[in-house]
């Protein structure tokens, strides 16, 4: 991917300057918007490969902006915010954010998360549809249905599920999943993975407390089990 276009939606001028310098020096083309309205217009105009979104925008909450973008924009969105409480983080992820990074942030970590998000937009097998006891995973369409009803997954949740389902029956270690989905910088952060597994179970399992699809291999990792 040559010089991917990145849209930054943030009203803090210092952050915008820092991001513009950092991203342009790493061969990204950068567009800046200072409000939700400007950001939505810019997203439609430039069709960026990735959006960096602040929660604290002057005209409306970044959560509302995220919801509006996700109604039509299907590429990665990374949230940057001074808000570090679990409620805001989970809300952003549930509304479709690929990742959430708290300000002040390290530019190296942001770049790593961007590379991971951009990697995860590539579909490995565009013809695959995985059907398992009423759960249908469409890899090309990036959609999931349970008993005929579409389930709303975040981009990261979908990537995690598709990796596990593509390796049905095989135990994938914590390290493999963290490296493959979030990047090498996340090795050892098993709690981060457990949060996403718990969210997935709530959405696809009949009983999240007694999972039949996403099985824990204690101390090792997880596996997807399908018994058609």
Concise summary:
The chain has helices spanning 13-25, 36-46, 62-70, 86-94, 107-119, 155-166, 174-182, 190-204, and strands at 5-9, 29-33, 50-54, 77-81, 99-102, 129-132, 135-138, 143-146, 149-151, 172-173, 214-217, 221-224.
Topology overview:
Layout: E1 5-9, H1 13-25, E2 29-33, H2 36-46, E3 50-54, H3 62-70, E4 77-81, H4 86-94, E5 99-102, H5 107-119, E6 129-132, E7 135-138, E8 143-146, E9 149-151, H6 155-166, E10 172-173, H7 174-182, H8 190-204, E11 214-217, E12 221-224
Helix pairs in contact: 2-3, 6-8
Q: Average the pLDDT over all residues and give the rounded result.
A: 87
**How much of the polypeptide forms β-strand, as a percent range?**
15-25%
| CATH fold descriptor of the largest domain | Rossmann fold
Q: Architecture of the largest domain, CATH level 2?
A: 3-Layer(aba) Sandwich
The biggest sheet amounts to: 5 strands, parallel
General description of the model:
Mean pLDDT is 87; it is low at 123-127. Helix 6 (155-166) crosses helix 8. A five-stranded parallel sheet has the order 2-1-3-4-5, sandwiched between helices. The longest helix is centred in the C-terminal third of the chain and has 15 residues, at 190-204. It folds into two domains: 5-119, Rossmann fold (3-Layer(aba) Sandwich); 153-224, Arc Repressor Mutant, subunit A. It has eight helices and twelve strands. It is an alpha/beta fold. The chain has helices at residues 13-25, 36-46, 62-70, 86-94, 107-119, 155-166, 174-182, 190-204, and strands spanning 5-9, 29-33, 50-54, 77-81, 99-102, 129-132, 135-138, 143-146, 149-151, 172-173, 214-217, 221-224. Helix content is 40%, strand content 21%.
């Amino acid at each position: 991917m040559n010089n991917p276009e990145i849209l930054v939606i943030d009203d803090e001028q210092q952050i915008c300057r820092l991001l513009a310098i950092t991203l342009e020096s790493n061969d990204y083309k950068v567009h800046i918007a200072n409000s939700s309205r400007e950001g939505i217009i810019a997203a439609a105009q430039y069709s960026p490969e990735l959006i960096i979104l602040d929660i604290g925008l002057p005209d409306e909450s970044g959560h509302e902006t995220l919801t509006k973008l996700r109604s039509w924009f299907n590429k990665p969105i990374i949230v940057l915010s001074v808000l570090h409480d679990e409620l805001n983080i989970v809300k952003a992820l549930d509304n479709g954010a690929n990742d959430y990074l708290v300000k002040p942030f390290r530019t190296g970590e942001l770049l790593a998360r961007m590379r991971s998000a951009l990697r995860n937009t590539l579909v490995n097998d565009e013809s695959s549809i995985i059907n398992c006891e009423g759960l249908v995973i469409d890899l090309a369409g990036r959609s999931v249905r349970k008993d005929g009803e579409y389930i709303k997954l975040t981009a990261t949740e979908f990537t995690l599920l598709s990796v596990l389902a593509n390796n049905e029956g095989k135990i994938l270690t914590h390290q493999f999943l963290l490296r493959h989905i979030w990047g090498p910088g996340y090795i050892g952060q098993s709690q981060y993975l457990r949060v996403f597994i718990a969210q997935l179970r709530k959405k696809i399992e009949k009983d999240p407390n007694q999972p039949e699809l996403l099985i824990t291999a204690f101390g090792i990792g997880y596996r997807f089990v399908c018994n058609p």
